[in-house]
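Human:
Focus on the backbone:
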Amino acid sequence: MSNQEYERKHKEDRPVVALCYDFDKTLSPDDMQAQGYIQAVGYDVPDFWRESNGLAERNDMDQNLAYMYMMQEAAQGQVLFTRKQLEEYGAQVSLFPGVESWFERIRDYGREHGVIVEHYIISSGLKEMIEGTSVARAGAFEKIYASSFYFNERGVAVWPAQVVNYTNKTQFLFRIEKGVLDVNDPGVNDSFSPEEIRVPFRNMIYLGDSDTDIPCMKLVNTYGGHSIGVYNAETRDKARVYKMMRDGRIRYFVPADYSEGTELDTLVKAIIDRTAANEALEALHYQYKKDWMEADRRSSEQERERGDLLIALENSSTFASTHAVIRDLQRVNRWTPEERETLCRIAAENSQVFYILGDWDVRQFYQGILGEMESLTPEAWKVRERLESEG
């Protein structure tokens, strides 16, 4: 597939704020697999994770690949391990207070303040289960980046298609930054000027709950964005967010209550307000930068034009061509001191110019040139004497 066939997002006429979420224990109180699936295949939740982690350790295996393997193996003879079944388990996943209305409510707030708000999932959980949640089915997410399975023609999961762990989560932030959302689109490696970036890191908000979110949090913080640690409002266990704060991984921490008027709601809206004001200033900066670059470009063109005219005057071999060049020279509003000296040298040395210094147009032009010179060179004195003798 060529780059041109990938659907990409481009710079908008309004600033875009990207809210990026982990899923388990960020939007949901528990691991999604532990809310029906693990029990359905006959495991106690702690035993499942203990065996899965042990499998990873014994085989130098990625922990996410290990749990995906365990899910597939445990399903044998127990449940149908299909996309449809995983989505149905996803539909059973509980969500923190306020999550159901959060996404559209925050999008509305952004619209009211001149900002496009987009929501993204970056999770080590299962994409198929997330897609089965009520909020995903309602269109909450712009894109879901999560571990996923390859399904055969019968819809049965047979192989991992995508594995998302804490070390590779950051790649998806770069995709969001550039609007290159397809996981196979190599355009994420393309160079973009600051003016072309769709979602600068300063406009990203990352919400997470644990160490697996640290690389993303650090990246967002480093480039001026906002990382928020969330903790369960019922248990009020802040140990993890305190550690992340101590280590400089997050800027804020709040209870995972997404209801209107809560601490989290107020914080995110304040960031949106700040982004709207900041991006207005950034837009002015880029406009001034564009004007400056255009002025520099024009200046360079004018320098080349003036250089061409000096050459034309120096090479003039007839009185008629001299008058024509003088007409063009008179249109130039500004000459550098060096260029004025060159004009006088040409007049003193080129007889086709020197002998018509008394003609009205040539005389007027050179009087202006002499009038702008702070001190006269020998050639300029010669031109001045010729003008006075013709006067």
User: Anything to note?
Assistant: The longest helix spans residues 263-314. The mean pLDDT is 92.
